[in-house]
Write a structure and sequence with these properties.
Blueprint: H1 6-11, E1 17-20, E2 23-26, H2 29-46, H3 50-66, E3 69-72, H4 75-82, E4 91-95, H5 100-113, E5 120-124, H6 125-130, H7 135-148, E6 153-163, H8 166-171, H9 173-189, E7 194-198, H10 210-231, E8 239-243, H11 254-268, E9 277-280, H12 303-317, E10 322-324, H13 337-340, E11 345-348, H14 350-358, H15 364-378, H16 388-395, H17 404-408, H18 412-432, H19 439-445
Parallel strand pairs: 3-6, 4-5, 4-11, 5-6, 6-7, 7-8, 8-9, 9-10, 10-11
Antiparallel strand pairs: 1-2
Helix pairs in contact: 2-3, 2-7, 3-7, 5-7, 5-18, 9-10, 10-11, 11-12
Length: 448
């Protein structure tokens, strides 16, 4: 239920915490982890009063920290992977587009069962828009889920595909870069201490020289890295990622990686911490490729490219390795190959979206209503060759924002069932990616 005032919210928490020596002390964690945190999470997302909403988000953050739950950067772990002091696993980074609080809860439950410390919650620039989740809201949901499930230690929040728009960049480079800086600042203020910069959209393949093709990319990435370093908290080194290959394009090469890294190193200057990982293209595309009948096309991932570029990125530049995007719809048998071939991180988004929509527990009438909305509001995005199934598959991600509260307010048994399905899926990812039993490694390099 929504709180009517900030005073009412604090009155309901008198037995849960107290202020002591300028910090918050939790008095009854069991009460907090009951309906109290559920209500705080709801108000952090849906309260119509923006002051109450903001205070709920701040409360969740402070309560989490008081329990030893802290937003953190994965940078030091990735540096250790670059030095080959630890590794052999691929870190799953999950984009949650809807049912965020309960999906994050399921992920924490799976992580606890698998002793997994290396996993990331992320949201892309585009997803922030169409799901209606600003960074502070997303962070509140993930931290509230950590409280609910009794998590302790780091929580890695990541800005995924903080991307340069090529069209706007061509018209006014400075304005486009400044807009992205505003989003970066907003994310940092929400404790997103992991930021993936994507300026691969402005790579100019019309140039005959690979370094000149990559120049707009590495110069923009260097400028944005410098901005992050100037604005990160004093005790945090934000993990920054770069990207050399636009997802869905041709596969990346060692020559492109080398050209980017050499140009980037020169552009960023001495004494400034650079990126800790690099995203590449290996044959996948975001969301996968949907066939006319609504089934997914089989995609062949170039694992040789992953292995080759990961090795070069570690041995020559000290990076953790390469990042694989667009992977969540791949067949299960593909996932154990990512750690074997040296991928540092893998991004998982559409597959979790599909699990929510396609679960037998998802209300069918609500799904029909969402699909009618997509036809009414987004038909301009439909290609002439699209079947109904292809159009719905490609646009249903845009149903999460307008129907966020309706999805959140499903009856308890429905989201319990969906949560169990997501939990089981994360179990598989932790096993396949060899990311189980990584808590000790995270504690060593990131801290408890």
């Amino acid at each position: 239920m929504p709180y009517k005032s900030i005073g009412e919210m604090y009155d309901g928490l008198k037995k849960v915490f107290r202020e002591r020596d300028d910090r918050m002390e939790v008095l009854d964690e069991n009460v907090l982890r009951g309906q109290t945190i559920d209500r705080l999470a709801y108000n952090a997302v849906f309260n119509a009063n923006i002051d109450i909403m903001a205070e709920a988000r701040t409360l969740i953050r402070n309560l989490a920290v008081s329990l030893g739950i802290r937003p953190a950067s994965i940078h030091n772990l990735y540096e250790a992977m670059g030095r080959q002091e630890c590794g052999g696993f691929t870190v799953p980074a999950v984009n949650i587009r809807g049912l965020t609080y309960d999906t994050a809860r399921a992920i924490f439950r799976s992580a606890a069962r698998n002793d997994a410390g290396a996993f990331i919650f992320e949201i892309a620039k585009s997803e922030i828009g169409y799901t209606g989740q600003r960074p502070s809201e997303y962070a509140a949901c993930c931290l509230a889920a950590a409280i609910k499930e009794g998590h302790r230690g780091p929580v890695f929040l990541q800005g995924d595909h903080f991307q340069i728009n090529a069209g706007r960049y061509a018209k006014d480079r400075n304005a486009e870069v400044e807009d992205l800086k505003k989003l970066i600042k907003e994310a940092l203020e929400a404790d997103f201490f992991n930021i993936d910069i994507d300026a691969s959209t402005v790579v100019d393949l019309g140039k005959p020289d690979v370094k000149e093709q990559q120049r707009p990319n590495f110069e923009t990435t260097a400028e944005l890295t410098g901005y992050i370093r100037a604005n990160e908290p004093a005790n945090v080194t934000v993990s920054v990622g770069g990207e050399i290959g636009e997802d869905g394009g041709r596969n990346s090469t060692v020559e492109e990686l080398t050209a980017f890294m050499e140009g980037y190193s020169d552009a960023i200057g001495k004494g400034v911490k650079g990126i800790s990982k690099i995203s590449i293209q290996t044959g996948t595309s975001h969301g996968g490729v949907v066939l006319p009948d609504g089934t997914m096309a089989k995609v062949k991932v170039d694992f040789d490219t992953i292995e080759r570029l990961s090795r070069v990125s570690r041995e020559s530049y000290g990076l953790a390795g390469v990042v694989q995007h667009g992977a969540s719809t791949l067949p299960d048998e593909a996932f154990d190959l990512f750690p074997k071939r040296g991928a540092a991180e893998i991004h998982l988004a559409t597959g979790f979206q599909n699990m929510i929509y396609d679960s037998p527990a998802f209300p069918q009438e609500l799904k029909k209503e969402i699909y009618r909305y997509l036809v009414e509001k987004h038909s301009d995005e439909r290609k002439e060759t699209d079947t109904d199934e292809q159009f719905i598959y490609k646009t249903r991600k845009k149903g999460f924002g307008p129907f966020k509260e309706r999805i959140w307010n499903m009856d308890q048994e429905r989201y319990k069932t969906i949560g169990a399905e997501i939990e089981a899926r994360m179990d598989l990812f932790f096993r396949k990616l060899n990311a189980a039993n990584t808590t000790a490694c995270v504690k060593k390099y990131v801290g408890a």
